[in-house]
């Protein structure tokens, strides 16, 4: 539009100089043309807001152009760029009034140049003004829509970024809680149980030290063995490795037999633990399934040793086509069992049966507890071996 203005201004001045050379008004036409060009150049410097300075500049610009049109009607077509200048600066009603005024001057100038009345000279300028105004209004509305769309997009992007930050914070909190749960279960099933056994053995050694030194030394040696195993568990626990019994090789079956023998030895005749394996696995069990089942057996036998008063307990590992089942039974005092439902990790405190439920839940399995007062207890953990069942969040143990 700026280029069109200067092109029309130059063409109008050239036409005037070619048709009216040497006239007395020529210096005024040249001076006013230069003034109009300089004023137009000052427009971008003043900005686009309708400030008092900007409105004064527009008034002077239109006034100089009107004087030029009065002196030389050929400058009338410079009005088209002035239409857009007024529409861009003034409010809608004032801009339309300015367009009407400029159109009237153009019509008058064209009639002065014509030798007779020509309807086209009366109708063409208003039509051009109407088209120019319509184009400007359409462009302005499109610009407003684009700004609104850009604002909505910015809001959506801000919402997305805020949601991603909140999601990341939630995932960090959930990860922290899951890690705390894992740590509590690991400590309960390994170090805490070992420390409890050591405490009982050392207390027994203290009671029998004077009457039966050999039995006391045997208790101390057993406690020392437990301390060594706890140290190995702690080192593997720090490095997030498999349980110590699994790390010795032989797989889950060997680890369960070792666990049964150790529990029997530590009880010194008060509790006998047997281990039995049925069936053969079609494929090696995943490491995390083996770790979880061993931890379940450790936690269940710890409950038997500390709470049931049982004299015999059994570990039965059954390999089926689609799942592996671990049964832990005892002949203790039993208890009134609650409905054996697998609870979500949010209800788990990380001790005893809740920890066992959590491990089974993480592997997509089911836990069943059968018990009654005076009739012992049987705990059965069934873990599915289908690929989809083992895609649950992995237990780091």
Automatic annotation (TrEMBL):
Domain Histidine kinase: 293-387
EC number(s) from the headed UniProt entry: 2.7.13.3
Keyword Iron part of the UniProt annotation: yes
GO cellular component, one term: membrane
Cellular location(s): Cytoplasm
UniProt keyword annotations, A-Z: 4Fe-4S, Cytoplasm, Iron, Iron-sulfur, Kinase, Membrane, Metal-binding, Transferase, Transmembrane, Transmembrane helix, Two-component regulatory system
Cofactor entry: [4Fe-4S] cluster
InterPro entries membership: HATPase_C_sf, HATPase_dom, His_kinase_dom, Sensor_HK_TwoCompSys, Sig_transdc_His_kin-like_C, Sig_transdc_His_kin_sub3_dim/P, Sig_transdc_His_kinase_ChrS
Residues annotated as transmembrane: 29-48, 55-84, 90-109, 121-139
Gene3D superfamilies per UniProt: 1.20.5.1930, Histidine kinase-like ATPase, C-terminal domain
Annotated Pfam families: HATPase_c (PF02518), HisKA_3 (PF07730)
A GO term, aspect molecular function: phosphorelay sensor kinase activity
Catalytic activity: ATP + protein L-histidine = ADP + protein N-phospho-L-histidine
Function: Member of the two-component regulatory system NreB/NreC involved in the control of dissimilatory nitrate/nitrite reduction in response to oxygen. NreB functions as a direct oxygen sensor histidine kinase which is autophosphorylated, in the absence of oxygen, probably at the conserved histidine residue, and transfers its phosphate group probably to a conserved aspartate residue of NreC. NreB/NreC activates the expression of the nitrate (narGHJI) and nitrite (nir) reductase operons, as well as the putative nitrate transporter gene narT.
Protein name according to UniProt: Oxygen sensor histidine kinase NreB
């Amino acid at each position: 539009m700026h280029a069109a203005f200067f092109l029309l201004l130059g063409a109008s001045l050239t036409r005037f100089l070619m048709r009216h050379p040497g006239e007395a008004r020529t210096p005024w036409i040249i001076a006013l043309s230069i003034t109009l060009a300089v004023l137009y150049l000052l427009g971008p410097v003043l900005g686009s807001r309708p400030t008092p300075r900007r409105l004064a500049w527009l008034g002077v610009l239109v006034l100089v152009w009107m004087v030029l049109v009065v002196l030389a009607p050929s400058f009338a077509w410079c009005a088209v760029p002035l239409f857009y200048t007024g529409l861009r600066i003034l409010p809608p009603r004032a801009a339309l009034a300015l367009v009407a005024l400029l159109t009237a001057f153009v019509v008058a100038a064209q009639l002065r140049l014509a030798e007779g009345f020509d309807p086209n000279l009366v109708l063409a300028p208003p039509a051009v003004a109407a088209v120019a105004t319509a184009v400007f209004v359409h462009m302005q509305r499109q610009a407003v829509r684009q700004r609104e769309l850009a604002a909505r997009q910015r809001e959506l992007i801000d919402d997305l970024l805020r949601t991603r930050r909140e999601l990341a914070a939630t995932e960090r909190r959930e990860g922290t809680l899951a890690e705390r749960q894992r740590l509590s279960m690991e400590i309960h099933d390994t170090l805490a149980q070992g420390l409890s056994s050591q405490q009982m053995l050392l207390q027994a050694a203290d009671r029998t030290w004077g009457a039966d030194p050999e039995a006391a030394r045997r208790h101390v040696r057993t406690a020392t063995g437990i301390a060594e195993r706890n140290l190995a568990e702690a080192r593997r626990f720090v490095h997030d490795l498999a349980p110590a019994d699994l790390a010795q090789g032989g797989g889950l079956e060997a680890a369960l037999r070792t666990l049964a023998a150790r529990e029997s030895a530590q009880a010194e005749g008060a509790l006998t633990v047997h281990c039995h394996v049925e069936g053969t696995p079609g494929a090696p069990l995943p490491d995390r399934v083996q770790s979880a089942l061993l931890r379940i057996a450790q936690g269940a036998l710890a409950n038997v040793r500390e709470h049931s008063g049982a004299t015999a307990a059994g570990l039965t590992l059954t390999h089926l086509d689609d799942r592996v089942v671990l049964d832990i039974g005892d002949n203790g005092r039993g208890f009134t069992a609650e409905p054996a439902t697998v609870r979500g990790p949010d209800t788990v405190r990380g001790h005893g049966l809740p920890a066992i439920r959590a491990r089974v839940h993480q592997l997509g399995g089911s836990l069943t507890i059968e018990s009654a007062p005076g009739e012992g207890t049987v705990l059965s953990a069934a873990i599915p071996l289908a690929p989809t069942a083992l895609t649950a969040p992995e237990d780091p143990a």
